[in-house]
Specification:
Blueprint lengths: L1 E8 L11 H17 L4 E4 L1 H6 L1 H9 L3 E4 L12 H16 L6 E2 L11 H6 L4 E2 L15 E3 L2 E3 L13 H9 L5 E5 L14 H4 L4 H16 L3 E2 L2 H5 L1
Parallel strand pairs: 1-2, 1-8, 1-9, 2-3, 4-5, 5-7
Antiparallel strand pairs: 6-7
Bound molecules: zinc ion (ZN).
Length: 234
């Protein structure tokens, strides 16, 4: 079994105006853990984050992880027209390619109209990870090809990693190859007192980090090979 650990780098959950505690405080925690375990992950990053926190993005790339594109402003692609969609992709790609030769993309909110796939191909992407195996209609869908792109869906909702151990492992036991886990850096910052929905704030901070360590141990013990998304696509 192959597994890819992916991190969506954006502003904190539902923050308005946007705050970035996750990027600033959560990223170093994740980089330390991945470094200790020898895991290379994929960080899907918005152009906005890369412009505001270039040193953080350099730390990610210098540690050998893959940088992917997560749109420019985290706008939801199904709510914007084709011209704005092209611009979101173009702006983010220009910003992020200064750090890394991007080939992987994931849309914010896992919401990307099929009609926009050619925009990704035109911008030089080879992999789209905007689909979800757990969503209605795509629940059993594995990797597929469309419009010259390979599409590799995420396997679970991000908050699965923060579930109690038994519940979390019950979900993991049902996952199909390749497993794509995803979460956000703000989940590794204590958000339990923030005025955000419960599923955003439960078990954030230290408990999330311990859960992620346990999840990595779970898959490692089963002989799973940790790969970046780019490596999965190859
Ligand atoms: Zn996102």
């Amino acid at each position: 079994m192959k597994i890819s650990i992916t991190v969506d780098m954006e502003h904190d959950c539902l923050s308005a105006p946007k705050s970035y505690r996750g990027v600033v405080e959560g990223t170093p925690v994740l980089l330390r853990l991945f470094g200790e375990r020898g895991i290379k992950a994929t960080f899907f990053t918005t152009g906005e984050v890369a412009r505001l926190f270039p040193d953080t993005v350099r730390d990610i790339v210098d540690a050998g992880h893959e940088l992917g594109c997560h749109g420019d402003t985290h706008a939801r692609f199904s709510t914007i027209g084709p011209d704005t969609a092209r611009q979101e992709i173009g702006d983010a790609t220009r910003t992020l390619r200064a750090f890394f030769p991007l080939t992987s993309f994931r849309a914010p909110n896992l919401d990307f109209p099929n009609a926009y796939l050619p925009f990704l191909k035109d911008a030089g992407y080879r992999l789209d990870s905007s689909q979800a195996r757990y969503k209605r209609g795509t629940i059993f869908a594995g990797p597929s090809h469309a419009d010259g792109m390979i599409r590799i869906p995420v396997s679970t909702m991000p908050s699965v990693v923060r579930l109690p151990r038994t519940a979390r492992r019950a979900v993991f036991a049902r996952l199909k190859d390749p497993v794509v886990l995803y979460f956000h850096p703000w989940e590794f910052v204590d958000m339990t007192r923030a005025k955000i929905p419960y599923d955003c704030r439960f078990n954030t901070g230290e408990p999330a980090l311990r859960s992620l360590e346990d999840a990595i141990g779970y898959f490692a013990a089963r002989g799973a090979a940790f790969r970046t998304m780019r490596e999965l696509a190859a």
